[in-house]
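Tutorial sheet, problem 5. The two components below are modelled jointly, 671 residues in total.
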Amino acid sequence: MAILIDSSARVLVQGITGRQGGFHAKLMMEYGTDVVGGVTPGKGGEWFEGAPVFDTMRMAVETTNANVSLVTVPARFAADAIKEAADAGVALVICLTEHIPVSDMMKALAFCRNRDTRLIGPNCPGVMTPGQAKVGIIPAMVAMPGNVGVVSKSGTLTYEVGFAMKNYGIGISTIVGIGGDPVIGTTFVDVLEMFENDPETEKVALLGEIGGSAEIAAASYIKNVMTKPVAAFIAGRSAPPGKRMGHAGAIVDGGEGSAEEKIQALEAAGARVAANPEEIPSLLG
Amino acid sequence: MNLHEYQSKFLFAEYGIPIPQGKVATSPEEAYAIAQELNGVVVVKAQAHVGGRGKAGGVKVARSADEARIYAGQILGMDIKGLTVERVLVDRGADIRQEIYLAVTNDRAAGKPLIMTSMEGGMDIEELNRERPDAIIREHVDPIMGLQNYQMTFIASAMGMPRAHWRSFARILSGLYQCYRENDAELAEINPLVITGAGELLAVDGKVIIDDNALFRQPALTDQRDTSGEPSSERQAREAGITYIKLEGQIGCMVNGAGLAMTTMDMTKLYGDADGIGPANFLDIGGGASPEQVAAALRIILSDDNVKCVLFNIFGGITRCDEVANGILTAYNEVNPDVPMVIRLQGTNAAEGSKIINEARIPNITSADTLTAAAQRAVAAVKEQL
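Model answer (structure tokens):
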């Protein structure tokens, strides 16, 4: 089934009546994703493109039996929306929202862990299993079905690489955008482990960037556990230390998180690291 | 957002953390008056958002008010790593017997607050971490429960804090954690926390970094933002809602998405570094790339005189490249840049987008199919002008 989502995913969109939420809910439906409903407090009883809108997640889950939720609400309300989804018993919560305060995320993440809910993001483009379902904003045209798993901290860079792979004739099992924030629900290692155990994934492309140590942990997992080949690219070689490069988490701080140390660790672990993301397809091929 | 030392320490004081008596001066006369009021040895300390001020001569011990005036005169207006010192903190000198490190920070990997402390304070924590990692005690805090009393006892005991100071250390630690939490800090650091000759604990230096994403609910802190060290172009971009960071190279980069923006910078360096050519900026234009957004971003990029070429790299996913191409041409006519531009459009309707660019036949504009070709062309365009 590839990983995380497949054609059996029953998806709720939190914020479905918002501009972003509605726009992408519609694209998800067009892709074939089973969007079973949405939640916007105060708009319960309305309909969105044939799907029911609820006031609360609890009611939405009870009625639709959804197992995935997509959070598209603004930053001030997003951590609460994540907790609401976890409390309603949704197994997988994917949060697109950018600019959520870290202190809110730390609490929401602890809450999800207490309830065995897997959180992906925030500040991520979502998850797509080509040909089956997409939950998030990844454009349909960037990937075709295949056997390479893609995991990435960034949105457009992922589209770029997915599209280059498609043009090269390489398909994708699942794309997972884990997000560019400092505190995220699902890390590179978590996703590598899922790909390692997924019979439909044969190779993996990992797209990292400066900041934090998640790529170093990934390198150690690749070295010690993984049997499947990994190609990687790390963005931010030319970024100066101490400056936050767009993503809240993309900062080289106190000598930690530089592209060089990540590239070295990945190479030492046996991953093939591209200096140019357009080389990724040939490294996989 | 970084707070100055004096802002950090005054904030600590609100949480019951003892700090040296002191005030901020913007002139030597003010420094003189403060020193006279403190009536004893004082420390005159440069307040600037830059590390290594001590080594640069930005911290001086004055034995009299006259000396304080002289030192303040030397430090005010001093250039430390490109930043001009506009304020000094004049603090009562402390009788230091022992220096301690104490901080609360976000542990990204664990997703939890982390307390770090060491009896070997004073030095840079990264240096200490490299040389003697075992000298640092690390304790995670459950973000929902908060810091517990037993954890404070554990920390004091594990770090080797003399028992006589446990109670006052626990008060400081609990105040610092509360300060970190209530102000949405990424880091609340006391370095050093000192034990004085009189056996008291005192926060002699402090540093607080606030999570920018939480500033909406921290109006009092937002008012304390000091933008004097920030390039005016970065301030303009921030106000226009565009993420822009000025760099030292010659190729202005306009890209949609942070990861792709960094990658585009990397490509200019990959192909230009041998000739001393690289990115002039980081710029994420966000989704859509409307003519207004592109024009605003183009003006900001061109406000940097080092820019010899502008490289557009846009991946059209949901946005269509033909729309983006029209947006770029409209912005071009409005801004009228006098440097060459290389435009690379990929994704939805990329061929149509490139056709629009090519058919406009603007001598200064070329298009490229791949990121590699675009970066190489931009490097070549700069090389011609060197």
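Marking note: Chain B touches chain A through 51 residues (CB under 8 Å). Full credit if you identified this.
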